[in-house]
Design goal:
This protein is an alpha+beta fold. It has twelve helices and eight strands. The longest helix is centred in the middle third of the chain and has 137 residues.
């Protein structure tokens, strides 16, 4: 059975238990045991939840460590990115400077080449044997040019300084171009690294957010679980306290009822003792005044003895009142019940059978039907009611219900709504249906 179903059944049991004013302490005690058992299960669940919380706290600690590492890595990456950006900026500046220097070198080389061309033309016009223009223009490289020029002594002497400068500028140009290419390659590599670091940081941030969300979700779920279990446990504890309080009140009520029944029994005992003494005095007087005739009238004496024998003793009336105490809150009204040993053992009575059974415990045999009980003794006015008298009510029919008066405007009987219980006949429902018939069993 699921926890919710168990609680539903448990709540139903509790409501039924508390719904009856005359519910027995035993039933309530069983309900307390049921709730305590249920509570033990809840507390076990709380213990399990606490273990889960401990595991989550460990996981949370690990997640916090991971998050701290990620944050640290992010900071380091940010520093590296800033450094890379600065290096890129500086490299770009170097490249711009190199480009300017290359432009200057190219301009200087171009000017020297113009000078050399002009001198070659001049040498050819002056009748030189070697076509200097062919030497200059036919060379495949600058070094080839130098080699060719070396073959012409006159040209070397005239232009040696120019050629040296040209060679130096060419070498510097090649060196700067190579440097520019390396820096450009380095810049591209740094740009690739930069993009990779940005992507890595983005992934790390996403992972960090997911871990935090997971942690927060688990925390909320665990806290909610523990809170629900604690609330359930508190509810069960409160229900136990309520039931125990009701048990205490029920015991106090039953003690009061028992005291009231004992008082009614004592009152009935005094009343019966007084009636018996009065009857005995009357009988003695009659015997003395008619002693002569009594010798001649044995039948009359026999009838008087018979009448005296049906009257219960003072102890009998009290016993009839208190006999049903054990069934208060521990019986069920059953129409036609109380006429078998099984019904009596299980507290299954209707109203007339209970009255008959109660008086039987006092040694008086009465019929188990309301109609017959109206004629078992003599009727008295309701103003003369005393404990032990039978009182009748018009419920579903005239004289449809009967009980035993216990004094104080109350009677004990088996009611359809409560089973055996003490009920108030001076107000409420029973006052409205009390028909005034009072029978004294004599």
């Amino acid at each position: 059975m699921s926890l919710k179903k168990k609680l539903l059944v448990l709540n139903t049991t509790i409501m039924l238990g508390l719904g009856s004013v005359f519910a027995s302490p035993m039933v309530k005690a069983e309900s307390v045991l049921d709730i305590q058992s249920e509570r033990a299960g809840i507390q076990s669940d709380i213990s399990d939840a606490e273990k889960v919380i401990q595991e989550l706290q460990k996981e949370q600690s690990k997640m916090d460590t991971q998050i701290n590492e990620i944050v640290k890595a992010m900071k380091e990456n940010d520093i590296k990115i800033e450094k890379t950006k600065k290096e890129v900026t500086e490299t770009e500046k170097d490249i711009d400077a190199l480009k300017k220097e290359i432009t200057v070198l190219e301009e200087r080389i171009a000017k020297r080449e113009e000078i050399l061309k002009e001198r070659a033309l001049s040498f050819q016009e002056s009748g030189g044997d070697v076509n200097y223009l062919e030497v200059v223009l036919g060379s495949t490289s600058f070094r080839d040019l130098v080699d060719r020029v070396g073959a012409v002594a006159a040209i070397v002497e005239a232009d040696q300084e120019i050629l040296t400068q040209q060679e130096a500028d060419k070498a510097e140009l090649e060196e700067k171009q190579e440097s520019v290419e390396k820096k450009l390659l380095s810049l591209k590599d740094m740009q690739v690294d930069l993009e990779g670091m940005k992507a890595q940081i983005k992934e790390q941030k996403a992972a960090s957010v997911k871990m935090k969300e997971k942690l927060e979700k688990k925390q909320l779920e665990t806290e909610a679980l523990k809170k629900d279990l604690e609330n359930e446990d508190a509810d069960l504890e409160a229900k136990i306290a309520t039931i125990r309080e009701n048990i205490k009140k029920e015991e106090e009520r039953k003690a009061a009822e028992k005291a009231e029944l004992n008082r009614a029994a004592e009152e009935a005992q005094k009343s019966s003792t007084s009636n018996v003494e009065s009857s005995s005095s009357s009988t003695k007087g009659e015997t003395s005044s008619s002693s002569g005739s009594s010798k001649n009238s044995p039948t009359t004496k026999s009838n008087d003895d018979s009448k005296a024998s049906v009257a219960p003793s003072s102890a009998n009336v009290g016993s009839a009142i208190t006999a049903g105490y054990k069934y208060i809150g521990n019986s069920t009204y059953v129409f036609g019940g109380g006429r078998t040993a099984s019904d009596i053992a299980n507290g299954r009575f209707d109203c007339s059978a209970f009255v008959a059974w109660a008086y039987k415990q006092a040694g008086v045999n009465l019929p188990p039907s309301t109609g017959a009980l109206t004629g078992v003794g003599r009727q008295v006015s309701k103003s003369q009611m005393q404990p032990g008298d039978l009182v009748f009510f018009n419920t579903y029919k005239t004289d449809g219900h009967v009980g035993i008066y216990v004094g104080g405007g109350k009677f004990i009987g088996s009611q359809s709504s409560t089973g055996v219980a003490v009920a108030n006949m001076s107000s409420g429902y029973w006052a409205g249906v009390f028909n005034g018939r009072v029978v004294r069993v004599k």
